[in-house]
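Per your request, structure below.
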């Protein structure tokens, strides 16, 4: 499991993905029609990750979109993958159940434009193609296993509206269940008023060529370690604090080939945006939210001292205290420390004073990319 930085990342990819629902689904799972969407049509984005199955259904609304329906379920598809290299029976059954619910929602809303994708667990599992075919047979949903580069691009696109007009150097980090993506972007040749729109166009591909009015990707990396895979790797370490320290140290080692790791970090015009369940949970804990409120978390700016204080509090709570803490939640308490270990490693490497928190990710990136492609979003 070595970090991935494929050659030719600056080239525009050739479209290879078909529609989200197979046209040859059995009669028992007849897919919705795949017509060209109208300007007022609904769009769907489904993200099947190592831990969760999530879907959003939305319609364009000005320069943003309005969510019509959503779904999120912890399925832990990657359980046992680290040891066996395969997707296991029970996680696949849990995932199929969740996908049937998604299928029902797509039918209910008559969605005709969609991207349904799978990420790290399906990229790594030896039997993932068999599972994808089983999903198609039983639900009519046709999942694309996307590359690490596309996953990184979509993470960046999802954060476009949080990019400040003064940002010239941008680092986007996305901590997932099975992998972590980091993308470093130079926006210095883009006018401040055009930087958010320029970020949306990154769905087309990464460019490392400096061009007036265009963002340039300095470097990007996908580390095959996320909250689930890193936790499982160090599960045999009994001491809580020692396990946290080892996880953080090990993750930092994986960044050695990421070129900005060795470069002096800019202080002016520099912005880090972090998107993941780990980061939003840390933000909610900092705010003292006993009930999660996206409106208070998304777009929040946290200092490194504030992040460090929350992580220290997690360590002081111990495993049982974290399990009972309502700010963390029962679905996340077993993985919050592996996510925090990744976050702290990243904040050590880039000792900036602030990080913008994004409650958004692959689903939002998929929606923005579809709507940008179809020209249904207003552009500034």
């Amino acid at each position: 499991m070595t970090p991935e930085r494929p050659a030719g990342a600056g080239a525009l990819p050739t479209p290879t993905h078909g529609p989200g629902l197979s046209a040859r689904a059995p009669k028992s799972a007849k897919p919705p029609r795949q017509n060209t969407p109208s300007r007022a049509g609904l769009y769907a984005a489904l993200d099947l990750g190592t831990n969760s199955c999530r879907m959003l259904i939305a319609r364009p609304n000005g320069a943003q979109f309005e969510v019509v329906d959503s779904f999120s379920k912890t399925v832990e598809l990657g359980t046992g993958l680290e040891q066996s290299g395969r997707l296991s029976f029970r996680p696949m059954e849990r995932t199929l159940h969740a996908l049937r619910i998604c299928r029902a929602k797509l039918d209910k809303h008559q969605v005709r434009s969609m991207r349904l994708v799978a990420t790290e667990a399906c990229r790594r599992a030896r039997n993932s193609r068999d599972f994808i075919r089983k999903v198609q047979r039983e639900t009519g949903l046709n999942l694309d296993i996307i590359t690490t580069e596309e996953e990184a691009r979509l993470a960046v696109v999802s954060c476009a509206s949080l990019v400040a007009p003064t940002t010239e150097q941008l680092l986007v980090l996305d901590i997932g269940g099975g992998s972590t993506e980091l993308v470093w972007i130079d926006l210095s040749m883009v006018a401040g008023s055009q930087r958010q729109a320029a970020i949306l166009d990154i769905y087309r591909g990464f460019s490392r060529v400096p061009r007036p009015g265009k963002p340039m990707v300095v470097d990007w990396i996908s580390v095959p370690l996320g909250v689930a895979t890193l936790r499982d790797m160090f599960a045999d370490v009994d001491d809580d604090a020692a396990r946290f320290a080892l996880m953080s140290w090990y993750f930092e080692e994986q960044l050695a080939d990421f070129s900005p790791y060795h470069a002096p970090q800019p202080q002016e015009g520099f912005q880090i945006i972090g998107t993941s369940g780990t980061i939003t949970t840390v933000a909610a804990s900092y705010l003292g939210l006993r009930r999660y409120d996206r409106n208070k978390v998304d777009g929040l700016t946290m200092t490194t001292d504030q992040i460090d204080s929350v992580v220290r509090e997690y360590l002081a709570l111990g495993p049982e205290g974290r399990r009972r803490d309502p700010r963390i939640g029962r679905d996340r308490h077993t993985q919050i420390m592996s996510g925090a270990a990744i976050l702290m490693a990243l904040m050590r490497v880039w000792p900036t004073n602030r990080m913008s928190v994004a409650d958004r990710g692959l689903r939002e990136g998929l929606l923005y990319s579809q709507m940008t492609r179809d020209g249904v979003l207003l552009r500034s």
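Residues 89-109 form the longest helix (21 residues).

Regards,
D.
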